[in-house]
Amino acid sequence: MIGQSFGLLRAMKANTAEKWIEDRVNKYGPVSKLTLFGKPTVIIHGQAANKFAFTSDTLSNQQPQSIQTLLGERNLMALSGEDHKRVRGALVAFLKPEVLKQYVGKMDGEMRKHLESYWEGKQKLTVLPVMKSLTYNIICSLLFGMEPGTRREKFLLSFQYMIEGMWSVPVNLPFTRYNRSIRASSTIQTMVRDIIGEKRLALDKGHASPDQDLITSLLSIHGEGKEAMLSESEIVDNVMLVMTAGYDTSSVLITFMVRLMATDPIVYAAVLREQEEIAKCKKLEDLITWEDLNKMKYTWRVALEILRISPPVFGGFRKTLKDIEFGGYLIPKGWQVFWAANMTHMNESIFPEPSKFDPKRFENQSAIPPYCFVAFGGGPRICPGYEFARIEILVAMHYLVTRFTWKLCGKDNKFSRDPMPVPTEGLPIQIKAKKILRNHLMLGRPVPSPAV
């Protein structure tokens, strides 16, 4: 039941999980067996292993029992074959760039509200929880159409309890983290079903449009026969999946970018220069546009390099559909297959001087061998929310670097995993608002106070 689960979890907590994997590879070779989270498991690593994990039709998605129980059996990470293609296609229909272009302005508006609530007029703040508030509010507004209020606050409390047990030994005993997560998941499912009922009624009455948010988009899918549509259970499970993925991964990446800007003046200067070039051509009230985002090339390369060195998602699981052979070994049917991103991200034959922070690596992404940079997955299983995350990160960084300066408060610049990377104490910083002069003198307008 337990096997090496606690060993891996302890290593993640101590931020030594990469070494834990590396030590196993050095000791047992590129393919080895163990028990993780109650299942017999095989660890594989390397470019061929990544390709095998993301493309093989002999593997199905398989998450630890804890994740599958909390997010439901019909979420995208638990599906394979035609069901995976159908549900993925439904999500991609909403998350593709052509659709997301119309939401850039809304995301800009959410960022401005965030700055007003958490940054303006403040001298200190803790970055990670603040960024989680940002990503949560963006998801509620843009993906689910959930307005601020009591429901959103109740949803957040249950959601935070649920994600605490995502990577835990699945022993459902009272007063355990896993038990509390299960109860929170049940509460969230009930709330999501209520929202779905409201959205369905609004669509039937013509009070909502199919592209209003993710839920209305999923409810509006029509195709050849009922098999093209998503069941209510599939909508519930995948709403919970998208929320979980968007809440943690984006907030962690923004936090790590803030941390980097405070410790690397060269990277900070280059990001600031790029963002100021965009800002100086705009009035203060102008929203970020899709064209502006496409000019933020260096800022996004910085984000990708952070993802290479400290990927929010440490690794993933698959399940064998039949007895299969990999690397000269037979993996029995029903076993878990575990891959870890850092095994190619930190491989010096793929990324020279892998410990060095160098955004230039991503100037020509086509030069990076396939299935070596897997922060967003790969092949048919690449993350459908990639473009959504890019917009979110770039809009946030534009306003942060052009309107504020900051420095770290703590001396400890380390982080642990639980299972996402968590900086020490959540990364407390001292902040100072900049005087915004652009366009106001030229337009004959009064210069706003630094708190604006």
Automatic annotation (TrEMBL):
Single GO term (MF): iron ion binding
PROSITE patterns: CYTOCHROME_P450
Pfam families to which the protein is assigned, alphabetical: p450
Gene3D superfamilies: Cytochrome P450 (1.10.630.10)
Named cofactor requirement(s): heme
Superkingdom of the organism of origin: Eukaryota
Species annotation: Thalictrum thalictroides (Rue-anemone)
GO biological process: secondary metabolite biosynthetic process; sterol metabolic process
Positions contributing to heme binding: C383
Keywords: Heme, Iron, Metal-binding, Monooxygenase, Oxidoreductase
Protein family (similarity comment): Belongs to the cytochrome P450 family.
Alphabetical list of InterPro entries matching this protein: Cyt_P450, Cyt_P450_CS, Cyt_P450_E_grp-I, Cyt_P450_sf
Name of the featured protein: Cytochrome p450
